[in-house]
Amino acid sequence: NVDTGKIEWEVDTDQPMIGGTCVTGGGVVFAGEANGYFRAYNAKTGKKLWEFQTGAGANAACSLYELGGKLHVAVASGGNAQINAPRGDNLLVFTVD
């Protein structure tokens, strides 16, 4: 709660989250980690809804866009040499159902 400082939920991650998050209007939070995992969480509870191993560090903030009436999330998975994250050259896009 921003007024009281009470944390609603918290998720411990294996790797630093240096790219930020994105949130849908439907209540899904997306976040990537340096170990290549890109995950979706319930925005109200923090429960993990889904995860995908990208094969390289998912250190970029994701983007949301609508196309053909469907919401999509895009994330770059390229790694990070400074923190020794797996390197790659992928742009991944998923539909958000």
Describe the structure using short key phrases.
about 100 residues; mainly beta; Thrombin, subunit H; 4-stranded antiparallel β-sheet; 3-stranded antiparallel β-sheet; 7 strands
Task: Give the helix/strand layout.
Layout (H helix, E strand, L loop, with lengths): L20 E3 L4 E5 L4 E6 L5 E6 L9 E5 L2 E8 L12 E7 L1
Antiparallel strand pairs: 1-2, 2-3, 3-4, 5-6, 6-7
Protein model, in words:
β5 and β6 form a beta hairpin. The N and C termini lie far apart (28 Å). The protein has strands at residues 21-23, 28-32, 37-42, 48-53, 63-67, 70-77, 90-96. The mean pLDDT is 88. By secondary structure, the chain is mainly β. The chain has one domain (21-96): Thrombin, subunit H (Beta Barrel). The chain is built from no helices and 7 strands.
In short:
The chain is mostly beta strands and 97 residues long.
* Number of DSSP strand runs: 7
Q: Roughly how much helix do the residues carry, as a percent range? A: under 10%
Structural category is mainly beta
- CATH level-two architecture: Beta Barrel
Integer average pLDDT: 88
In whole angstroms, the N-to-C terminal distance is: 28 Å
| Biggest sheet: strand arrangement | 1-2-3-4
Estimated radius of gyration? 14 Å
Q: Write down the CATH class.
A: Mainly Beta
Number of helices: 0
Beta-strand content: 35-45%
Largest sheet: 4 strands, antiparallel
- Name the poorly predicted regions: none
Question: What is the H/E order?
Answer: EEEEEEE
Overall geometry comes to: globular
Count the domains.
Answer: 1
**CATH fold assignment:** Thrombin, subunit H
